[in-house]
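To whoever is on call:

I kicked off a structure prediction for a single chain this morning and the downstream step that reads the tokens threw a length-mismatch warning. I double-checked the sequence; it's 180 residues and nothing unusual in it as far as I can see. Pasting both halves so you can look.
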Amino acid sequence: MQEHIKVPQDRIGAIIGVEGNVKKAIEEKTGATLDVDSESGIVVVQSEADALKALRAAEVIKAIARGFSPEKALRLLDNEDLILDIMDLSVLSDSPADLKRIKGRIIGKGGKTREVIEQMTGARLSVYGKTISIIGDAEQLATVRAALDMLIDGAPHGAVYSYLEKRRRELKRSRLESIY
């Protein structure tokens, strides 16, 4: 299995890491081989043995490329329930001003909205370039996606926070019911 991933130039260093430690960690945990071309920004993920682990390695590379720290991205290898979901905002608008407004609503003043979404859902968000990336399990992704859609559609932040609080209570209740 072989996959080619285009990585923004400013994220190549994060993929390699200090003295190659991030690249080494990904290779050791997955058994895949990473070939990083610093000039072109292409990362080639190869694995002869385990295609599934190679796909996970590719997901980690994509997560780092979309702005996640290597530590957050490497969580994808530690928990098989975690999924990387990338939303392309350029399909919503071609206008740079619109994209800036949408990203601003999602990040919030001083990063507050992004932080609240992360705290209420347990998922991790990265707003980078023309994308919003989410790392979380299936329930977390559904909740975050709904909250992001509300923000993109212009819902007041208070309404989004209320929705997140309601979903958190519902999920807690359903988890407790499944235990007992």
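Update from on-call: the warning came from a stale cache, not from the record. Cleared it. Sanity check on the structure: The longest helix spans residues 157-179.
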